[in-house]
Each structure stands twice: as structure tokens, then as C-alpha cells.
Design brief:
The chain is built from 7 helices and 7 strands, in the order ααβαβαββαβαβαβ. With about 170 residues, the protein is α/β, with parallel strands linked by helices. The protein has a single domain, classed as Oxidized Rhodanese, domain 1 (3-Layer(aba) Sandwich). The protein has a 5-stranded parallel β-sheet. Strands 3-7 form a two-stranded antiparallel ribbon.
Amino acid sequence: MAVAIKQTGHTNITIYNGGLKDWIKAGHKVSSVAPLPKVKVHFVNADELQTILQEADQRNCKDRKNNPLVTLIDFRMSPTLQAKMRADTYQIQTTCNTIKAQLDDFIDNRELIQSLPDMGQIISISETGNRDRFLVQYLSQFGKTNIRALKYGMRSWLKTGCPIERNSSLNN
């Protein structure tokens, strides 16, 4: 994220390599106003997700009772920053519902949280898979336990050569 911010012209940005995990591992203190619940995060690799989406797409992404089979949460970057940076140009190709939101968009946003289906699988997609844990932990507080994360994020999807399409939320 810091690299993206630097590309918008800000120069007083410093990147802490290692992130919060390394900070804690080094024994530095951290605190939280509202700690997230401890939840095991289940990951799916790009090939597995591709198979899941192919099967869901063949069924119009709905089960027999018209419940969604798969919903994607793409929370890589805000639409404003995407357009400015020309980033996140591509998204996963699927006919299944894809919710595009920032991680922070879910905080105190009951409407967005309630828009997530209780049936079917929800797959979170970040850029590298590093932030998915926070989203899964946060949403678990609201009974959303059917969430898995794309292992290594969108980068793994692209690296594996899985199907992509141009991000329709970006203007040409």
C-alpha cells in the first residue's frame, strides 16, 4: 500500500518491511481497542478456486434453492486509487457475485456485512493474501464462518494463469 501511496506523489512515506507480524515476533508491544476473535483461516489455492468457480459458473452460481454457491470479496484497492494508479486492471473472471470493497468498508457497516450470503462459499481476495486473515476474523464476529481466502492473493491467480477479465469499475 505504501508503494501505491508513493506513486500518487507523497514522498514522506516509509515502508516497514515485515509488517505487524514481524513487529510482534520481534517482541515489540502492540495494543488493540477491540481485538479480533481467534479464528482459523482456511485458504484455497488458485487452482482449487478455479475449479470451484468453473463448477459454480456452470450452475449459474446458484444452488437448487437459488442460494449463491460462491461469492467473491475483492478488497485489493479503492476504486478511486485504482483509477488514479491504473492498478487492479484485471479481476477474476466469473459470473458469480463479486463484492468490491475495502477492508475498512466493512467496519461498522451492517448493510455491507449483511449483504454477504449465509449460504455458499465466500472467498476473500487481497493482493498477496496477507490481509485476508483480518477480514475473516472481523466478519466471524457477525456469524460469517463460510469464508475462505485465496492463498497468496490475486498475484497467485495471475501467476498461475487463471482466467481474468478487465475490471469493469475502471474507466478507460
